[in-house]
Amino acid sequence: MFDIYGGPVFGMARQQFLQAADILEIPTDQRDRLLYPKRAIAVTCPIHRDDGSTVVYEGYRVQHHLSLGPAKGGVRFSPHVDIGEVAALSLWMSWKCALMNLPYGGAKGGVRVDPYSLSPKELEALSRRFMQELIPFVGPHVDVMAPDIGTNEQVMAWFMDTYSNDAGQTVTEIVTGKPVSCGGTVGRREATGRGVTHTIVRAAEEINLNLAQSTAVIQGFGNVGSVAANELHALGVKILAISDHTAAYHDPKGLNIPEIIDYVSKHGVLKGYSSECLTDPNAILTIKCDVLVPAAVERVITEEIANKIECRILAEAANGPTTLEADAVFAKRPEVFIIPDILCNSGGVTVSYFEWVQDLQQFFWEEEEIISRMKKIMDKGFYDTVKSAKELKVSNRMAATCAGLRRVNAAKQARGLFP
Ligand SMILES: NC(=O)C1=CN([C@@H]2O[C@H](COP(=O)(O)OP(=O)(O)OC[C@H]3O[C@@H](n4cnc5c(N)ncnc54)[C@H](OP(=O)(O)O)[C@@H]3O)[C@@H](O)[C@H]2O)C=CC1
Ligand SMILES: O=C(O)CCC(=O)C(=O)O
């Protein structure tokens, strides 16, 4: 069924779903309806490049379900985007929003493009064209987009402006992750990395790890990785290694994170920061440390790496960083406490929810309130997950997925076949 959702990332999301459906004893005839997205939209986005040529990019938006409210999830601009990956990410958004008890279904979008290959003018044209093509399928109560890999506040401002121009009025609540100057919320830019750090604090308490004397390694130094690095550094954690696509650095004495953040804000990437600490990017996930934070892309923690990893907490800041085979290894390595992605990185969508609520009400909150409400919601997700993992004798990932899936299924069963 639905051959369009191919590829290893969707295969992984499907298997995780089936494992959770078995644990919850969901009848076979109810499973396809929960697994396959409600709708998937493929769009063609032609733009004029600066040299006068016309180039066409392919884009997708997959809305997994709308049974609990509008579909919600980010849009990525990346050369690796395909419909299977976007669909898998939409499933994970569904379980994440339901785990956090947010009134949303799951969605994800993407355009297959290397954003670094575009000039600012071309990036704006592509962002606007993607939103233009999706106007018939989105809305503040239908589907609310947000940033992900390769997109940022500026791209969200272009999305919002394009939708608003079509509507003939300013509709700030159509996307989240916007600049504060045009309806964004304070604290959204930092929310995912800040939330990742909060779950690490809670995990450290669970395993009696003194964070102020601990070490961490972080893969990915974009929105999520750099904020998590900064927050962990502020807690006294020694950051031993970091990487992005362009460079990896390792310093057993600890890297100067504020200085590196300053460097990246001026140069865009890590490349060129230091020649002394340069290291092999493929080796950083297996450096001995207390906290390992994959904050880049899917499927980087393979079976081989899972066998070699020497950390006490694996904080999945990225979506889907751990393969099924690696999960099987971790089932035999209970000394590694895994904070599953749908819990670990849920601070982003939680503060997106606050942004949407504030836009709908046109009443804005202080940053203190945003942070404390985010932590409260994430604490509930964290403690529910840990408790249910112990009760059901399953992994933290399965406990979190089951909690999300249970909520989505309950809404679908209560409402009937339509949603
Ligand atoms: N932004 C958000 O609010 C949320 C993001 N996430 C997830 O977090 C992850 C990171 O997203 P985000 O920070 O927003 O994206 P960004 O585009 O801001 O950053 C991605 C980072 O990962 C790096 N990277 C990409 N591929 C590799 C690789 N193979 N090895 C090492 N580094 C790599 C990029 O390097 P370079 O710049 O050199 O390409 C960049 O530093 C994704 O999985 C995303 O889905 C989850 C929840 C919310
Ligand atoms: O902020 C959002 O709405 C979604 C963020 C996202 O894409 C994610 O959590 O993976």
Domains counted in the coordinates: how many? 2
- Any idea what the shape is? globular
Radius of gyration: 20 Å
- Flag low-confidence runs: none
The CATH class label of the largest domain is Alpha Beta
Number of helical regions: 14
Q: What summary fits the major beta sheet?
A: 6 strands, mixed
User: Helix coverage percent of residues?
Assistant: 40-55%
Widest sheet: strand ordering: 8-7-6-9-10-11
CATH architecture identity of the largest domain: 3-Layer(aba) Sandwich
Protein name: Glutamate dehydrogenase
Domain Glutamate/phenylalanine/leucine/valine/L-tryptophan dehydrogenase C-terminal: 185-416
Binding site for NAD(+): 192, 223
Family: Belongs to the Glu/Leu/Phe/Val dehydrogenases family.
Question: What would your notes on this structure say?
Answer:
The protein has 419 residues and is α/β, with parallel strands linked by helices. It folds into 2 domains: 8-171, Leucine Dehydrogenase, chain A, domain 1 (Rossmann fold, 3-Layer(aba) Sandwich), CATH 3.40.50; 190-344, 3-Layer(aba) Sandwich (Rossmann fold). Helix content is 45%, strand content 16%. It contains 14 helices and 11 strands. It has helices at residues 8-23, 31-35, 83-99, 120-134, 153-167, 188-206, 223-234, 257-267, 303-308, 324-331, 341-344, 347-361, 367-392, 396-415; strands at 39-48, 54-63, 71-78, 105-112, 143-147, 215-219, 238-243, 248-250, 291-294, 313-315, 337-339. Strands 8-7-6-9-10-11 form a 6-stranded mixed β-sheet. Strand 1 and strand 2 form a beta hairpin. Helix 4 (120-134) crosses helix 5 and helix 12 crosses helix 13 (367-392). The site of 2-oxoglutaric acid has 14 residues, from strand 3, helix 3 and helix 12.
